[in-house]
Fold:
Amino acid sequence: MVIININSIGGKEVLCLALLAVAAYQLCTIIYQLFLSPLSKIPGPWLTRITPLLEVNALKEQRRTRWVGSLFAENLGAIAVRTGPKAVSFNHPDAIKAIYGHGKGAEEFGKSSWYDAFSTTGESLFSTRSKKRHAMKRRMVAHGFSTQSLALFEPYIDQMLDKFMRKMDKFAQTGEAFDIYFWFELFTMDLMGDLALGDNFGVVETGKPARYSTLVELSQRFGNISGILPFGKSSVSILSWVPLPYVQKLWKARLEYLDYARMALEKRFQEDRKQVLPTGKPRQDIMQRFIEAQDPETGRKMDFPELRAETSSLMVAGASTGSVTMNWMTYYLCKNPTVKARIINDLEVMFPDNLDGTKAIPFTKLNKLSLLESAEIECLRLHPPIGYAMPRDTPSQGAVICGVFIPGGVAVGVPAATIGRNATVYKNPDNWDPDRWSDETADLATMKTCFLGFGFGTRQCIGRNVATQFIVKMIATLLLRYDMELEDPSLVLGTKEFTIQKPDQNYNVILRPRKAGRT
Structure:
């Protein structure tokens, strides 16, 4: 037996021993991750076993969703692929229920530390990881997205639609080709400003984007990168120390974005709440509903930092996803004139006194047009705004998902863009076919389970009905009011990923005043 007298070892020797111990630990960890971990049996690039850099690089190059999809394409038939040392993506219907579903077992899958990077001045409904706080927040704000609230919001949507259509009338009169997605972005930014802050940005009137829109995108990109790092909430500050120009640009945008949200909300409190409707009651928009919201069990209301966090989250969710969905509906309807003609016919039958689309279209009737709704859902199936997996952590004891054992503390999820094109779920999955959602011979239950355009389970987008309301009102009004076609009928539009998936190129449409009954 060899006995080492610690007191006889000098400082340099102690340091060397410590470094050797750290090196040995790191080497053992790498060997375990590469060859011995249960995750080592899951297919994926070998680098993903020891570092998240491949995913970070794919995110930086705006191809994260495509990268995950390519891993499944390279491993045909694989139920799961490894995307990082402690990250696994699944592509199977059963994984959705296991990871995101309701029930006691599903409760064990908590949100991963990725969400911490999106907690700004406080936890929002989106970013909070606590099931208890999420349930409380959802109880507080649920009435803000109820059927009654949709009716209260509709006048603001109609006012903004009227401004938008007056701009479209000018394009229709001249026959000038123009980038309609650009205008959709202006519309949704102004609309969400109206609904969330009590005032719009005036971008539809000026035809120029607000800086706020750019700040939102850059800030979310910063959150995405920091969320991949294994440091939880501290990753935000750690990443801000990185002296790379790209990172510093994103960090400065995040700070400016949060400051803008603070000033806008302060203005709302100081000025807009004083404004009342002719009824004498406060203006009833989403933010007013948030301000008035209280937990029915405790009576608690949201404080200013929470409202600020909810405002920031709401602007991202509403403006970005709404505009890109309207873009895809426009593109696919122009590429599929038969479907477009059927929807127009449905609209003319339902609204015989509004054949020129100049009157406001009530959502209470519009939401009964199943083909129009199916067209929206089909676009979101093919092009979900968030294409990659929303991560959940496996419970400490681990979990078996689709027959695959995953150790505890691993971020797992189902990428919406991948499962949405799963050939075992959807027939001809790459084809845009809204009729698939009314095909009684199809497994509609499984198809709906695998539709993650708005998320799944208790954490799905609470603003789904608000988004659908203004999206279908916009498309219905355009179809009744104009003949709409692509400037380049042969256009094939793909996606490029920012924080959300957007068109990979600019494209133009041509509008002409439409004569009723002519499609």
About this structure: The CA atoms of residues 17 and 23 lie 10 Å apart.
